[in-house]
Amino acid sequence: MFKIQMFACKMSAYLEPPPLSELLKEVEFEYMNAYCKVVLLKDVPRLEVPGAVMENLKQGNVLQLRRWVANKLVEAGIAKWAETTIDLNYLSQLLWKEKNIAEIQELPKYFYMEVKSLIEETSKTNKEKADEIRRKLMDIISLRLLKLFSYAAKRVKLATSDRMTSEENILFELVMRLINEWVYHVCPKGGAEV
User: Fold this and answer.
1) Phi-psi region of 4 (alpha: psi -120 to 50; beta: other; left: phi over 0)
2) In 66-92, which positions are buried (b, 16+ CB within 10 angstroms) versus exposed (e)?
3) Where are the alpha helices (DSSP H) in the chain?
4) What class has domain 34-83?
5) Residue 126 carries which DSSP code?
6) Residue 130 CA: distances (Å) to CA of 89, 162, 168
7) pTM for the full predicted model
8) Which of 78, 83, 146, 194 could make an SS bond with 73 (beta carbons 3.0 to 4.6 A apart)?
9) Mean pLDDT by 10 residues, the chain (194 residues)
């Protein structure tokens, strides 16, 4: 009997979805390998990146590189980000919309990763501003989670899942799975219409 239970436990472990942290690391990996644009701050005679060698690059040239490569150039003071869509003003506007509009608002694909980077960068020069960004982010997260959990509690698949980030979609699917399993065990016919 014990061996059968052990086997069943081992089999269920293979059928379980990966832990949340693994799924979120996959999103982070995708983000770091996505292409982004940087502007060179100085002339670069030769730049070797995976799969390419660029020569005679001039100050002001815009390069499209994988984010992890771009990060190295920005950290070295060789380049700056060409696109900065998320700032404190953007977060304030988004917070207002999340508070005042019932529908979940559309976000850039890598919103959380971008804000996380913004906080890290800002904290190097202005801790107070970084704290303000962090507070706004937490308020946005709270409001969005309330909306997502409300949809999940109603067991409604979101027609607006394209408005959610990858991280939110992962969380929503996990919460839906938990709620469906719970309802199935506490309600006759799993809460289906009678």
Assistant:
1) alpha
2) ebebbbebbeeebbebeeeebeeebbe
3) 2-15, 20-33, 67-75, 88-100, 111-125, 127-153, 166-186
4) alpha beta
5) -
6) 13, 29, 23
7) 0.79
8) 78
9) 46 63 91 93 89 88 92 92 88 96 90 93 93 96 93 74 87 88 81 52
The residue whose two tokens read 């390998």 is 33
Whose structure tokens read 């999940």?
Answer: 152
Domain locations in the chain?
Answer: 34-83, 85-194
pLDDT (tens digit per residue) in 133-187 = 999 999 999 999 999 888 888 877 766 677 889 999 899 888 888 888 888 888 8
Tell me which residue has tokens 């770091």: 32
What six digits make up the tokens of 84?
């900065």
- By DSSP bridging, strand 35-40 and strand 79-81 are antiparallel
Evaluate whether the domain defined by 85-194 bears CATH number 1.20.58.1030. Answer: yes
Domains 34-83 and 85-194 share a fold: no
Q: Which long-range contacts (CB under 8 A, 24 or more apart) does 72-81 make?
A: 73/38, 73/40, 74/38, 77/41, 78/40, 78/41, 78/42, 78/44, 79/38, 79/39, 79/40, 79/41, 80/38, 80/39, 80/41, 81/36, 81/37, 81/38, 81/39
Task: Give the model's pLDDT for residue 11.
Answer: 44
The pLDDT of residue 2: 43
Q: What is the pLDDT of residue 194?
A: 36
